Amino acid sequence: MTTMHVVYRVHDEGRIGEDWSTYSFPDGVFAGGPDLEPLRSEVRRSAEELAGTAVSVVEHIERPAGPDIYVRGALDDRAAERADVIDAVRASSLVRGERTTPGSRFPLAASGDSILVACLPEDTLSWVLEQMDAHDAVAVCAVGPSLGTGRFVYVNYLAREAASPAGRDESDQSIAEAGLSPDSTVAEFVRATITAGRRGLRLSPVG
Predict the structure, then answer these.
(1) Other C-beta atoms within 10 Å of 119: how many?
(2) Per-domain residue ranges for the chain?
């Protein structure tokens, strides 16, 4: 069965009459509308028509965090937990700083936007990599314990081999060089990069 990742992106969030748009990979299905649930049904139908067979649709939602910055969360059986991560990331000082100094902290995905993937500790790096094409670089985001009135928010990077220069730099290491593998969890990714003392470390999945 063919697998297609579909992203539902919300615009003008919080206003009456939200505006939604979609994009998908590896095949492109594009749609839009004011309501999410009818849009999901339309996209599923379009995906099967495009593939000519049954399609396993893996769904994600993206919410804006600033100009050209979106936080992505999977619409899976742990969507409520991922929504908490999305809220924490959007409220974090990292994101607030990026709003005033664009391009200084987050890599660029193939779309030209900064995509921050909201992760849970048990998620694997392969789960993140499945959401990326050869030209993508995304920020991996996880939330730690509460610290006073806030929460610790971790952000680091995964870059594919053909990612744009804005998503990579000369400090890139492969996952293997960092002592990790695609089967490593996000929790292991966090520990490895923090232990290395390089919060800005960008990892490429190419060994």
Answers:
(1) 28
(2) 1-65, 67-207
